[in-house]
UniProtKB/TrEMBL annotation:
VWFA domain location: 31-176
Keywords: Signal
Highest taxon listed in the record's lineage: Eukaryota
UniProt protein name: VWFA domain-containing protein
The keyword Signal is annotated on this UniProt entry: yes
Signal sequence coordinates: 1-23
Origin species: Dreissena polymorpha (Zebra mussel)
Pfam family, one: VWA
Gene3D superfamilies xref list: von Willebrand factor, type A domain (3.40.50.410)
Xref: InterPro entries: ECM_Assembly_Org (IPR050525), VWF_A (IPR002035), vWFA_dom_sf (IPR036465)
Amino acid sequence: MTMYKKIFIFHLMMIVQRVAVSGQDCNKPADLYFVIDGSESVSDTDFKTTKNVLVEVLRSFNVSKDNVHVGANVFGRTVYDRIVLYGPSRSMYVLFETRLRSLSRTSQPGTATYLAIEEMRSDFRTYGRNVTKIAVVITDGKSADSTRTYEQARLAREAGVTMVAIGVGDVNEIFV
């Protein structure tokens, strides 16, 4: 495991655990959603590392029907791959990890971060529970429309979603 990956895992775990449990029991129910930049400006290596890190981070949580539910989407010019927010049974968790690792990316130009955040908000409204809601946006920050991205992040925060942004690759300014 590279030093970059170790540092990334450590920081992601610390951020998510601090927000999710606020110093309480790690089994506290929460809905956790990853918004992953899969645009052409993110390298294949960084995209693959991100997916592998997410699998490792999620192993530290009690992802299950009664505890932590997880969802994710991958975006570029549009949202083109998604795992709907849910809490798999322990026996189904291996399939969930496989699905997370299989998320695909695009080689097309364009980064519509706002569309991914908007879809995340929709998933929280449709599949979310009355628990702590956390969204982790993993991006290089090259949003095609920073005004709309900022607006979608604001709407998510107003709906009670704690927004966390993590930069990958050659990071630019991130608006969440």
